[in-house]
Input
Amino acid sequence: MSLKSSTKTDVNTTELVISIDADKFENAVEKEYQRQKKNIQIKGFRKGHVSRKMAEKAFGEGAFYEGAINSLIGPEIESAVTGLQLSLVERPSVEVTSIDKGTGVELKAVCITKPDIDISGYKGMKASKAVKEITDADIDKQIEMIRKKNARIVSVDDRPAQNGDEVTIDFEGFFGDEAFEGGKGEDHPLVLGSGQFIPGFEDQIVGHNIGDEFDVNVTFPADYQMEEYAGKDATFKTKLKAISYEELPEINDDLIKDATEFDTVDEYRADIKTKLEEAAKNQADSDFENQLMNALVEKVDSPIPNCMFEQRIDTIVRSFEQQLAQQGMDIKLYFQYTGMNMDDF
Output
């Protein structure tokens, strides 16, 4: 390899001109011919027994040039980049500028390099640091999680449904007399007051008893994710099949012994407080560092190559897709629900 020139054509951009001598190119062409030889077939010759000369006569002198050059490009550019101690942020774009059997190959590689970051005026920077005070209310929220985890489901058959109950319903939605796609469910569980359904739907179940069959009349929101349904009036033929509610246990030492590693409520509350205070301190440290990092970013006086932003965006998108996959969803379905596309995202 011969590095003919190295020119900084722009900020974070270096253009290399590299020449590959005729002997090295010839060796690469011969290797490419040998690699392809077993698959070459010409009338009058057995497959795999066609000489290079005959193959080049039949397919052209450059029949093996592309493969040969591709095999050379990576090592040649890597050698040049290493020699110049360039730190690249993406694969170089390469253009073959000349090919000649007698003189060899010349190519041009445009390299995007890692920026040299210049930050000044950072000494003495300040940021606020506030650690959240843990209150009894914060501890009570954690205690409530233990109650919910140990709740008992109680079936109801002697009163109408009310907010907070979990009901089981069958339903089918209609626009006028025509049922619409996605509007039907059987044995569907629904916590009344949760806001899981269209506004007004759950309110119209309150007051009904098991076995009641009734109409629920609603209007789809104007910003509903499925545009063809947005703003439309709909009727859901509904049957109430079951009612239950969650009965929470009393917080006492017996519950704490059964549900945790502690013996008393006081011990458990003390442990919760210690852990919440540690989490609050860690959050305060993180917020403090983020303030300083954001302030430092504002002081950066160096252009960042656009490809680095694109790579970071791609990483975030891939990470988000993995999170969706864990929830049984893909990004196309997510876009359908949110009304976004990839550019919006």
